[in-house]
Each structure stands twice: as structure tokens, then as C-alpha cells.
Amino acid sequence: MRKILIPLDGSKFAEQSLTRGLAQFSNEVFQIYLLRCIDLNEPLDYDGEFVPQENLEKERHQKVEAAHEDYLKVKATALEKNGHTVSTRVLTGDPTRLILHTARQEQVDFLIVTSHGRSGLKRLVNGSVAESVARRSPCPVLLIPPVETD
Fold first, then answer.
1. What is the rounded average pLDDT for all residues in the chain?
2. How far lies 145's CA from each of 49, 79, 111, 123, in Å?
3. 64, 83, 117, 123: least CB-packed within 10 angstroms?
4. How many domains, in total, are found in the chain?
């Protein structure tokens, strides 16, 4: 059974990896790894407020981690109904490094990554995780461009 790693950040764009990305491999069943990264350098949207994650107390960080795990379980359940075997992980740190580490550790055959389509100053300041992963990946990467949906 081939293995696919799909990192998700909770956005509707990233979730397109689950539909548009997997559609490229019609009628195949995979071992899918869903990964959610808690980036300590990004502000966290939790309970409607933005808080730099380095300022989170341990208890709050655990709540965020639990919320991410619940999110991934919902996504995993839908994939399992289609016959896939799914593992989920929530890791803390730099998303690019964590995605590449997981890809190597699990010896995945493919990565499916969704670009957010940022450009200009926003991309210069924030960088592009998708681009960085695609350049350094140990396996082929399917990069899904963003498509606005209703």
C-alpha cells in the first residue's frame, strides 16, 4: 500500500488536498498520514483571539493540541470511509521541518501540499511552506493551487 502525507493547517485551502489532491489518484487506497503543525512563530487563532504561541501557558497549549487532534480525527474518519488507512499527528515546531521529517520517517511515496497563493510582501515576510517543502522533499510533491469555494 502506498503512503501519502497530507499536512493540514485547518484552512479551507489546505483541505482541498483531501479532495482535489486525492482525486488525482482515483480508485487507489492509501496509508494516509494527516499532519497538523503548531508553529511557535505564528500567532494562534483560538477562542477568537490571536495570541503569540510562545506566550501560551502549558494548559492552553494542551487545549490547542487537543483541538487540532479532534480536527484531524474528523478528517481521518471521512477518509477511512473510503477505505484508506489513516494516521494522525499533531507536532509542535517549524512546519517545513516537521513535514520533511515526517515524510522521511514514514518513507512516504507522495506529499500532497496546498499553496495558499500568497504573493508580494505577505509571501516575502511569511515565506512559503509549500514551496520550501517542494524544493527539499525526499519524494514527489503534488502542489495544489488554491481555488476559492463558496
1. 83
2. 28, 21, 14, 15
3. 83
4. 1
